Amino acid sequence: MASRIKHIGIMSQNATRMFKFYESLFDFRRARYQYTLDYEKDLAKDFGYPMLSSGRVATHFDRTIIATDGNIGVAFNRRRPGYHAGLDHFGIQVDDLEGTTVRIREKYPSVGLVQRPSYRTFADHSTHDPEGNIYDLMQPGKKEAKGVWREESEKKQRTITHLTIRAINPEAMAEFYASVYGFEELDRASQDPSYYLSDGTVTMVFAPWKIEDYLGTEHKRAGMDHIGFKVESVEAFKKDVETLGSMDPEWMAPKTPNLEREFNVILGLLKSCPYGRYHLADPEGNLLDVAD
Q1: Residues in the chain with pLDDT values less than 70
Q2: How many folded domains does the chain comprise?
Q3: pTM for this structure?
Q4: Host domain of residue 278
Q5: SS3 per-residue string spanning the chain
Q6: Same-domain pairing of 163 and 116
Q7: Fewer Cβ within 10 Å of end Cβ, the chain: N or C?
Q8: At 204, which CATH number?
C-alpha cells in the first residue's frame, strides 16, 4: 500500500493574514488555478457565491485560502461558528481507497467513515483515528480535484517535515497508522516515549499526552500539537521572523504569551520534540518548530 500526508487544515480567525504569514516565511504558494476566472466560477457554483459583472465572485475578504509548501497542501480555513480555532485536521492520500476502508472496518470497527460532499473536491471520505483525530482520505487521480491537490511536488528550501499529535496512547496510535496506511516506523531512543512514522517525506510524531504535564498552566487537550519545518538556515529564518514582525507587528509578528511562566510549560513540551531547534507560535498561536 502507498499512502502519504496530503494536506493539513488550520481553522483560522483570519485566513488571509495567516496565509500571508506562511507565504512570507515559508514561501507557501496558492495554486496557479486560483488566479483564473474558472476558479471564480467554480466558487460561485460550488458555494453559491454571487458573480459580479466583472467576472469575479463576491465573497468574504477573509475566506478560506489553500496553499502549498511544495509537497503538501495547507488549508487556512475561515473559522465558522461552533468550531475551535487552530490545527484542525489533516489529509492522507491513498493509492487504494477501497482497500483502505476495508482495513479500517475490519481492524477498527469503532472508527467511522463518511463520504464528503461532491463540491469538497480535495477529499473522498472523512474519518478519524482511535482517539478521535479527524482526517480526510483521497485517492490520486480524482478528476474533480483542482489546484494544489493535482499539482506536482516541488522541492523547496523551506518545507513541512513533521506533524506532531499528542496522544493518550501513542503506541496504539502508531500501530493504527502503520497497519492501516503502511507508514514506516522510525527508530527512537530507548527512553523516548514518542513514536515516529514516516510516509517517506513527512513524519507523524505521536507524543504522550498527560494532563499532569500541564500543571502550572491552562490544560490543553490531546490532539494535533504542532507543525515542524525544515529551513536552509535557522539563523536566516530567525532574522526573517524579526524583520517581518518589525515591519508589521500588529498582523505579522508571532503571537506572544500572556504569562511567560505559563507559556514556559507549553514551550517545554514543544522543545521535547527532537526535530525542532527554534520554536515559535504563528500570529494565531499555533505552535511551530524549525530546524535546518
Answers
A1: 1, 32-37, 39, 43, 61-62, 119-121, 141-152
A2: 2
A3: 0.90
A4: 159-291
A5: CCEEEEEEEEEECCHHHHHHHHHHHHCCEECHHHHCHHHHHHHHHHHCCCECCCCCECCCCCCCEEEECCCCEEEEEECCCCCCCEEEEEEEEECCHHHHHHHHHHHCCCCCEEECCCCCCCCCEEEECCCCCEEEEECCCCCCCCHHHCCCCCCCCCEEEEEEEEECCHHHHHHHHHHHHCCEECCCCCCCCCEEEECCCCEEEEEECCHHHHCCCCCCCCEEEEEEEECCCHHHHHHHHHHHHHHCCCCCCCCCCCCHHHHHHHHHHHHCCCCCCEEEECCCCCEEEEEC
A6: no
A7: N
A8: 3.10.180.10
